[in-house]
């Protein structure tokens, strides 16, 4: 089943206009019902009724579970919380990682009965990682008495199911959204700005990210062992920019949609490629996931309050979870450990040097992150070494099909690479935010919207890369 995504024609020309008209004309008291109905329709179309039913059941379990936490004595609260979190994360583990466990057991025990395949889930529910992390945050906040268990089940359901953030986040806190969900008002100026932000995100996704995607797909088709060093470098640069503008473009679209319907959805990216360290990079990349891991894993484990050994252990736990959260392949765990190594290096060895040397710190960060995306992008661990041998061909290996292979790609996407690099810099966003209300910028957005629609129609659209996570 093909998901309904923000950059699809079904969403842009049918679902969104119809939903916004119905939502706008509905009385304020009834808008919560319209939002939930629209969100369920949005999810059913893309993910099917089975996944939708699973999500609704999890909502019901956590809605009543929060009252259970609130009603028991202080000694029993932790046990109830643990039971509810086990149910939530048990669903995540089953649907996302059961296939990985069965595969690895089959390798270790070749005689494993073929019937083991019958326990595998039929499908991975879209957005389950974001959904479960959000439910867990709600339960923990109730347990900590930071928020009260929500009595209005419609508000709680919309907190979890609201379509602007349903598939790929951001991971929102209930306390941040409660007031907006109680009175989802539409203000014309906010709607107008939200629409502008939405179109900007759509353009980043369709015009830049989708234009760069064929480069990496072509390299995979050719085979890593058969490309030149120049093509290997162009490939990972294109993948880096594609991933960034794909996910940050989605996040902008989610922010814009939220503003259009009266919900304040937080920023998820803050110019990460201007960072001067890997640690700073991941405070600016997928910020809501980083904040979740900090508040619910790192700090509760002791953070940096219990000495060097504890800091190393706590950071290791965070980055192992980060790696595993992204997928059920060994490369994601290796990716997390790779980043952990550089974060520890910065914390205990080279942090002072990076602060004193601006240019070196920028070059270092970009290089380390580029290399990390090689590990992230290639799920077959054996092929990662092959790709690195092409990036750094110190010892000739294999052969190159065509020495000037990169020319075929660079001719068609050089402008997207250049535009992507420019838009990674701060002045692009500053210019956009400064002139957001100007008529000329709205005219530009109008043109970009129809260019994006044309490109989606011509290319049939590419799914968002982070849907798989």
Question: Secondary-structure blueprint of this entry?
Answer:
Elements: H1 9-25, H2 31-47, H3 49-71, H4 74-108, H5 128-143, H6 153-161, H7 174-182, H8 188-222, H9 229-260, H10 278-284, H11 287-298, H12 308-326, H13 330-356, H14 358-377, H15 381-391, H16 406-423, H17 426-434, H18 439-459
Helix pairs in contact: 1-2, 2-3, 2-6, 3-4, 3-5, 3-6, 4-5, 6-7, 8-9, 8-16, 8-18, 9-14, 9-16, 11-12, 12-13, 13-14
How would you characterize this protein structure?
- The protein is built from 18 helices and no strands.
- It has 469 residues and is mainly α.
- It starts with 8 loop residues before the first helix and ends in a 10-residue tail after the last helix.
- 37% of the residues are buried.
> Low-confidence parts lasting 5 or more residues at pLDDT below 50?
none
Summarize the helix and strand pattern as letters. HHHHHHHHHHHHHHHHHH
Calculate the terminal CA-CA distance, rounded to whole Å: 17 Å
Structural class by SSE content: mainly alpha
| Gyration radius, rounded | 23 Å
Report the β-strand fraction as a percent range. Answer: under 5%
Number of helices: 18
